[in-house]
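help with this.
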Amino acid sequence: MRIAVVGNGIVGGALRLWFETHLPEVSIGIWDPPQGKKDPIDESVEVAFISVPVPTKGFKQDLTILHSAIQASMLAKYIVIRSSVVPGTCDTLSSIYGRAIIAMPEFLTERTAFQDFCNQDVIIGYPDQFKVDANWWVPFVSIFGNLKRIRWASAMECELAKYAHNSFGAFKVTYFNMVYHLCTEHGLQFERVREMVLASGYINETHTHVPGPDGRLGYGGKCFPKDLSAFIGFVNDNPAHVLLKDVLCLNRLYRGPDPEIELKNTPTREPNLTNQEVSGGG
C-alpha cells in the first residue's frame, strides 16, 4: 500500500512516524511545499492524509491552505482530513469536489504527539450527504484494524467531537484559573484546594495546574485559542454562544488578548433561547 502524508508538521509527522514504526511495509509519500517536499500524489496512492494549518480569523476558518492540499491530492483514491475543521466542513468539501472527503480528526498534544497517537483510538467519519462507496472502509481496516480500535461515525459527528473535546479543555483551564484567582483573593492555598477537588477521583488532573506548563495563566498554544474561536463562529446565535464567549473573555482577562482573535468580530446577535439548532459550518 502507498499513502501520502500531506502536511508534515506536528500532526502529519506523528502519523508518518507511526507508519514508519508500526507498518514499515507501507510506502509513504510526503507533500509539504514549505519543507521542500513534493512527492507525487498519483493513482497509486490509496489514502492521502491531510494535516495542514487551518487558521481562524474573525471567528471564521480560512480554508485556503486546505483547498490547495485537497487539489494536490485529487488523484488519491481516498482523501482524509486530519486538520481541525468545524462541523459540516467535510460535507461541504465533498459537495465542492464531487467526491467523498473523509474526516479523521486528531487529538494530540504538541509535546507528546507521537506517543498520543500510538495510545489513542482513531475516529473516522464518512460524509453523510455524499453517495456512499460501499468499500470505503476497507483501506482503513487494513491500516489500523489490527493495531487500533476504530470508531466509525459520520464526518460531522467526528468534527463536532473534535471541537467538543478542545473547547472543554479550554473550559477546564479557565475554570481552574477562576478557582486560582478566588484562592488568591481570599488568601487561600490553591494547590491545597486543587488537590482536594481531585481527591474524589471524578476529575482528571489534566488542565488543572495554574500557572500552566508554559508558566502563564489561562490557555494558549496552537489549538485551544483558534479552536474555541472557530467554535464560537460555528454556533453563532445558538445559546451555547454565550457560554463559549464568556470562556474566551475570561481567558483574555487571565492571560491577555490573543492578537489572532478580535472580540469585536464576535457575533453580536442575541441568542434565541427557543431555537436549539446550530448553524452549519464550512
The chain has nine helices and ten strands. The chain has two domains: 2-155, 161-265. The domain at 2-155 is CATH 3.40.50.720 (Rossmann fold). The radius of gyration is 20 Å.
